[in-house]
Amino acid sequence: MRSRPRNTRTATPYSTIVAETLLAKLNYDGYFLEYDTARAGGFEPLRFLPKGNKMVVLGLVTTKTGTLEKKDDVKRRIEEAAKFAPVDQLCLSPQCGFASTEEGNVLAEDEEWAKLRMIVELADEVWG
Known about the structure:
This protein has three helices and three strands; from the N terminus they run αββαβα.
């Protein structure tokens, strides 16, 4: 979904149709999944993540707007994801880069830094 002008999307949400193949059968160490909107769907597909060394990076912090998410809301979403995959196999990140298109996204640099600081704080709180 890179290089789409001003955050437009054409793909369908991550779904269980492909989850088993992607998470359980393909030999990848990690997966970066965008979960910053309701359109991304629920965490149910994470149930196909085998216990072990594979990691899922939850893109729960949007880069589409400068509004800072509430830490408790993001932490709650991590807890929801942990119902389907071991929390020690989960990570946190922005859902995408801050300038994934030539035009960039509509947020200021200080808003970007605030989001990154919050991610670091949350990671420390959740994973120590």
